[in-house]
Amino acid sequence: MTGPRGIVLVTDRWQANRPLDEVVRAAVDGGVRWVLLRERDLPRPERLDLARRLRAILAPVRGTLLVAGPDPLDGDAVHLPAAGPYPAPALPLVGRSCHDLAELGRLCTEDYVTLSPVYPSPSKPGYGPPLGPAGLAGLVTRSPVPVVALGGIGTPEQVDACLAAGAAGAAVMGAVMRSADPARLVRDLCAAVQARAGVPVPAAPAAERSR
Predict the structure, then answer these.
(1) How far apart are CA 71 and CA 146, in angstroms?
(2) Which pLDDT value is given to residue 198?
(3) Mean pLDDT confidence for 31-43
(4) Dmax of the chain from CA atoms?
């Protein structure tokens, strides 16, 4: 199983301006194919039920649900914190959060990493200092696995800067969770990915152009 590419949606039901299932469905409609389920404060039965619902949303587009923490919730893909566990569990897809060169140096069998924060993050104020695109680029060259940029990303310009720095993808949380139109925002972010890859970007639906 290959790691995340393009836009990765990170969930946070506390920031969502509508039920989380609806935000994820809209994001998938906009082009998201990777979703990282956080919601670590939920009891396991509730979190498991949520994971199953999100997988059902992703299934028609062959998307993948990543689960934060070592418990895959009946799936096969997890995203671990920098603090552990080490070694990573033996699963088909394992990612880990990293923030600096020392944490990259502790990687063992992980398939990908997130590097954060790239930009100041309204979701985690004071968490940093931000790497910026230049700092991200420096760490990307030292990473043994593909990198997903994370932290304060919410515009096509920021996505493009992260990809230009060498990231394989960009993870977005608050901007999509809080958006009045998640599908449209995600479509714009995905268009930045396509443009960086040299892929022709389809015209927006007529309903969107008339807004």
Answers:
(1) 22
(2) 84
(3) 98
(4) 52
